[in-house]
Amino acid sequence: MDLEVLLRTCSDPKSKPPFLLEKSMESSLKYINKKFPNIDVRNSTQHLGPVHREKAEIIRFLTNYYQSFVDVMEFRDHVYELLNTIDACQCRFDITVNFDFTRSYLDLIVTYTSVILLLSRIEDRRLLIGMYNCAHEMLHGHGDPSFARLGQMVLEYDHPLKKLTEEFGPHTKAVSGALLSLHYLFVRRNHGAEQWRSAQLLSVISSPPAMINPANSDTMACEYLSMEVMERWIIIGFLLCHGCLNSNSECQKLWKLCLQGSLYITLIRDDVLQVHKVTEDLFSSMKGYGKRVADIKESKEHAIANSGQFHSQRRQFLRMAVKELQAVLSDEPGLLGPKALFAFMALSFIRDEVTWLVRHTENVTKTKTPEDYADSSIAELLFLLEELRALVRKHTKVIQQYHLQYLARFDALLLSDIIQNLSVCPEEESIIMSSFVSTLSSLNPKQVDSGEKFEFSGLRLDWFRLQAYTSVAKAPLHLHENPDLAKVMNLIVFHSRMLDSVEKMLVETSDLSIFCFHLRTFEKMFAVTLEEPTMLRYAIAFPLICAHFVHCTHEMCPEEYPHLKNHGLHHCNSFLEELAKQTSNCVLEICAEQRNLSEQLLPKHCATTISKAKNKKTMKQRQTPRKGEPERDKPGAESHRKNRSIVTNMDKLHLTLTELALTMNHVHSFSVFEHTIFPAEYLSSHLETRLNRAIVWLAGYNASTQEIVRPSELLAGVKAYIGFIQSLAQFVGADASRIIRNALLQQTQPLDSSGDQTITTLYTNWYLESLLRQASSGTILLSPAMQAFVSLPREGEQSFSAEEYSDISEMRALAELLGPYGMKFLSENLMWHVTSQIVELKKLVVENMDVLVQIRSNFSKPGLMASLLPQLMGAENVLKRMTIIGVILSFRAMAQEGLREVFSSHCPFLMGPIECLKEFVTPDTDIKVTLSVFELASAAGVGCDIDPALVAAIANLKAGYNNNIHCLTKAIIQVSAALFTLYNKNIETHLKEFLVVASVSLLQLGQETDKLKTRNRESIFLLMRLVVEESSFLTLDMLESCFPYVLLRNAYREVSRAFHLNRVPASTH
């Protein structure tokens, strides 16, 4: 493992040791490479000066590199020693008899070969070793003790295969014997899909009477042994011990069969051996191997022509067979006891086919048949593998219960009989086998029920030791002469693993951590799966496979753990993000379709239908319908089908969503490198974000044209979206209520969680900039009778109908969309505009302060008042600004009324107490308490005598008439109440004073003869009455005490007469 990491480090310029890239080191590196391993450090100061200057840093940095090479050398020494010992003992290897012994022997050879090949692939090996030794000698006065042997080893393995074949010449007999024992097994495991189908491989229901019979074999472990492992044994074994290929026809047959199966075999991780090229290059340099070279070329052509289809058909068979197996075992988990072997065989076969496809997809770049190395249905196979793994984990106790009884009640008795019938049984072997019987006989079914942890590793280790004892030439007891003992012990080993090593068995048979080192292929497979509609339901397998990456880690390489962890988590996240994105896209597309259907039911679309129905007879009498005139479909027409085979866009979307929902809802959670992953949370997050964007999109706001959808239409669209998302809750596994709640709540804020504008901001800006701005300029009027703003028609100009955005129903819809928080934001912005007008009014008051003080003191002296009033400056400006304030406050009152109705509908149990609490407030109540209660009431839309929002806005300043003049009354009352509250004045007292002053001023108008001064006098009289009606602090009795009612009656008559004479449509009163 260290060597593989070293290879990766040195092959990447970013991670390569910095000394190898420095220009100042170039001459030293060339000298070391040229003289290696005979480097004269003491007499080469000219060449090694840079090394001398940085010797301490070089030692510190390269120590781990150097020690890795030393480890390889020591490993080689141990391998030599062990192989020689095995040869001296004349050990006999047979995979069907001494499985563990044979497997370990072949694994040792392959591992050793892989290490040497990896060593030869490290291009900078001479530089790393030589530079370290130079720095060591400069620092300590002598070279490293291991350098001489290490340097010699590196030179010997410049041509690794040539050297390895020389080393393994003496071991040919043992290696070829072990490989030949694979022949029957390899041929059987190399059957094609048709042979598998004929044998009904993996089928539990092919023979109903035998369904509960235990699935046994004379070679249990061989049944789920990896094909890739066997190929690696055979290819590398015969590559090193090639002499037997010319002398033994059986070896030759096995070798050729193996060459026809794969173009590449794995050395470690993503490092592969190009089988035919490497073998051909080696054999071409040897005499007498011409026929073998021809065999290699023939096998390569066969592999290129047939292996792709061969494995494709096997994958297709496995999809059907494993699906059937998984369905049967899910329905009857009790069968996992007798048929556990089938589950592990299925996992192993899937793993073999997937790894074959991965390593060939990654490495076969130029081919005439690229379809041989691609599989659009690979997701289904991965999914079945994960399903079978989950099934085994779920029913582990069933497997344990069955095999515990098997071990105690059958295996122990059978083993005891076999031991007693042995013709020869040495004492040591007898003790070991007797311990097996006693261990198995002591098992009790209650151990499973109590959750006791089983541990049979000692028994299996003793069996491994016994295999070694009985496989040497001079052993008194030969295992190959007692095959029954081997069979029952191999069976016992499998059964014991079903008790204590189920998870390890799952890793051994179905680990796909190879994807961690073939990430590009992994990503391509996922992308292909998303393009295949029928495979979408299996796409969850890809994030689940990321959990396998943890098996790539090794305790001897802790520095790799963070890197591998990042790979696993990153790809798991990216896969789930993409799946959630696809699902949310599909959901939102269906929502958009539902919204289109909902829009057809809006009241505005029924006008045409009503008109046609009303004029039906008249139209028939007058003229025939025009030809080619399109007939508008009625809502619901989309549900009528003449032919069910016709697939609509909605059908396709629902089908896609069904597939995606299956994959997103397949597992509640799973773990990847100690992180618990919840797929539904990814979907919830995406749906929430997309729903936010969709709601803003539905508003249809156009900044350039100042167009926006009516609140009622947006509300209908939002309800269509929400209705569909709510119906998804049981299918996609996401918390639909939380998604909707979070999205709608975010829309009540100025910005959503992504920092984007919400409908609260859009509608607030639009009402302020479009509707209220035009109302302030007089192009839009407030109609108290309609309780809405109405647009004045203008010739040659097209404008929106203000009443369509400001009537009662629209205000209710706006309140329902924005909610209390959004309406509060709207109020705050309205109040900001009010306060900006009050700032200007304050300036006018300051300018006219002296005159105003005199008017207040002398309002009862007509002569003096006549001279004081003309001195007031900016009177028109005051009226204009107060009118603007009135327009804004009138709109706010309408919006608050909409909020009150919505709040009463949604929360009647809250509205009652709030209104009741408001009734307890009197003029004598403490002002802080009053404002707190009014603020609560205002948040619910309840009207208040004092507007808390206006009070707060003014506090922060501490620094239907034709011209909307009727809005002035609301401005007078609301602003005065807010100001008097702010400065702790008695509101009623000061408003009475205002009423007296205003009344006196108006009565004085009656004595004026100047027509300019008496213009609109009657309208101003009526405005006084509106002031009284608007205020809860003034009454008509107070008005009549200072202003005769007869004047109001005459004013009503005069204003009405003038209206009918002038026929001004906009003067609504």
UniProtKB/TrEMBL annotation:
One of its GO terms (biological process) is cell projection assembly. Residues 626-640 have a biased composition (Basic and acidic residues). Residues 612-645 are annotated as: Disordered. It comes from the Eukaryota. GO terms for cellular component: SCAR complex. This is NCK associated protein 1 like. The gene is NCKAP1L. PANTHER family: NCK-ASSOCIATED PROTEIN 1 (PTHR12093), NCK-ASSOCIATED PROTEIN 1-LIKE (PTHR12093:SF9). InterPro entries: Nck-associated_protein-1. Residues 613-625 have a biased composition (Basic residues). It holds the Pfam family Nckap1.
